[in-house]
Design brief:
globular, 245 residues, alpha+beta
Length: 245
């Protein structure tokens, strides 16, 4: 069975399949908690302002919370979300490579100049670029991290690889985008910069310009649209890549 619907979380589709087929009784409190966790994360604690919550998500989460509260009347979805967020962003023990693998998605798109599908990978990382590179190089020189990233791209046979960072600094939420590409780099980088939905800007040009000169297959950006999750970004990137073929 394949279900394609615009929802904040695929877990909502799974939950609603149970209830729609008279199998709600099969979901106990532990399973309800397991199903609720990704819904809370994917919809930013069921917040409509995040732009991800749909009626399907609201329906599924309401049912799951009611199941959990039968066993635990004091259960709070917000408390669970806060605990999940703390665990999600606690990556202090992970290496650069482990961070890339932690939340990674890969797809094929478009057709390359020699007629093959273009392999595209996107890693969502809960740390800044500087934090990520410091895991591989105590001098914070980024060079070792770039080697690790290129080895990762080679192992996955990627032609385009995007690292989407999300983190807080001084209580302010930020997003960055680091793009590696082996195909039509100037057009791809320009296409990303010109897209008004993503709202990219060059990251600290005076600091990174010398570094980027020796790594012409990559670009570092700040992301102006803080709602730009991977789910929103991936089809935009696929459209831009397809237009280059």
């Amino acid at each position: 069975m394949r279900i394609v619907e615009p929802v904040g979380s695929a877990s909502s589709l799974v939950t609603n399949l149970f209830t729609a087929n008279n199998l709600a009784h099969a979901i106990d409190a532990p399973l309800a908690t397991l199903l609720l966790c990704p819904i809370l994360l994917d919809t930013v604690n069921l917040d409509p302002a995040a732009g991800r919550l749909t009626p399907q998500d609201a329906e599924a989460s309401s049912f799951l919370i009611s199941v959990i509260q039968r066993d635990d009347p004091g259960f709070s979805a917000s408390s669970l979300f806060e605990a999940l967020q703390r665990a999600k962003f606690d990556t202090s023990s992970l290496t650069c490579l482990e961070m890339l693998r932690k939340d990674y998605k890969q797809t094929s798109c478009g057709r390359g100049v020699i007629g093959h599908k273009i392999e595209l990978g996107i890693s969502s990382v809960g740390a800044s670029w500087d934090n990520l590179t410091a895991r591989e190089d105590c001098a914070n020189n980024s060079g070792k991290a770039v080697e690790v990233i290129r080895d990762f791209m080679e192992s996955k046979k990627l032609e385009v690889f995007v690292i989407m960072t999300a983190f807080e600094t001084c209580g302010i939420f930020k997003r960055e985008m680091i793009v590696f590409s082996s195909l039509n780099k100037p057009k791809l980088f320009r296409g990303l910069m010109d897209d008004t939905e993503i709202q990219l800007s060059d990251q600290n040009p005076s600091l990174y310009k010398p570094f980027l000169k020796s790594h012409e297959d990559m670009q570092l950006y700040d992301v102006g649209n803080l709602k730009m999750s991977r789910k929103i970004f991936q089809p935009i990137l696929v459209r831009i890549i397809t237009s280059l073929a």
